[in-house]
Amino acid sequence: MATIKKYKNALVLSGGGVRGFAHMGVIKALNEKGIYPDVISGTSAGSIAATLYADGYTPDEVMSFFKAKEFKKFIEIIIPKTGLVKMTGMANLLKKYLRAKTFEELKIPVFITACNMNTGKPEYFSKGELLKPLIASASIPVLFEPVKIGNYLYADGGVMDNFPIKPVEGKTERLIGVFVCPINYQEKIPNLKAIAIRSFNLAVNKNIVLKAPKCDVLIAPKEVDDYGLLEVAKMDKLFEIGYKEALKVLENPDATFKTRFLEE
Asked: What's the rounded Cα separation, in Å, for the pair 201 and 110?
């Protein structure tokens, strides 16, 4: 007797900093093709995209939030102690637009991945207070301060799981993965910040080749690697890259999947 799956379509969204705007382009393309996720699992930028969409906003509406003001104002530079940047502004933006205060109030179930810095393990939040796990999930170590939840400090979920399939694996008829943090050749790494970001990317993406085959559909635009993790001015271009890549993959998912991962 076949096992009944809990969800029809599960969407998994990787981290990737500003490249996460590509997630919104992908979601728009999926919706245009009549594909709507029944559950979303995200980490870092993917968790923010997942939560805003699950809160009932369209991809275009989400993009408008980040264009309403100069995005640099959303990041408050502080004297370095535990991090270089404090995400006060991002928290304020999410407080302004998030209608849901808890996971249970979201229109679609969401799993948010954050790294417990004390235990060194990933944790998948899906119940209770929404904002703190969401901010923690996107707090890149060194660049951003960790977030205290209960007795523990939490940081970017990508540290331990940048492609969080685990919460939905085996529970869905179709698993759609979106990976926006590729590692391509980089000739110049000019400064300490660039070294820190490059090191983080290399560390968090080491297991993608093992996880990719678990997806029924994988959308992984290589072009996003041309844009820095904090290059906010390119948000429209990243959205367009995600949108076009999703449409291409949906036309021939098997061919694109093999080209991007299995044959490399």
From this structure: 24
The answer to whether the beta carbons of residues 257 and 212 sit under 8 Å apart is: yes
β partners of residue 178: 13, 219
Q: Is residue 246 left, alpha or beta, with left meaning phi > 0 and alpha meaning psi from -120 to 50?
A: alpha
CB contact set of 36 (below 8 Å; sequence gap of 6+):
9, 30
Return the exposure string of 80-94: e unless at least 16 CB atoms fall within 10 Å of the residue's CB, then b: eeebbbbbebbbebb
| Beta strand ranges found along 164-206 (DSSP E) | 172-178
Residue 178's φ and ψ, nearest 5 degrees, are -125, 115
pLDDT digits (tens, 9 = 90+) for 146-196: 899 999 999 999 888 999 999 999 999 999 999 998 776 677 777 776 777
Strands 7-13 and 39-43: parallel
Can you give the pTM of this predicted structure?
Answer: 0.87
Quickly tell me which residue has 């994988």 as its tokens. 218
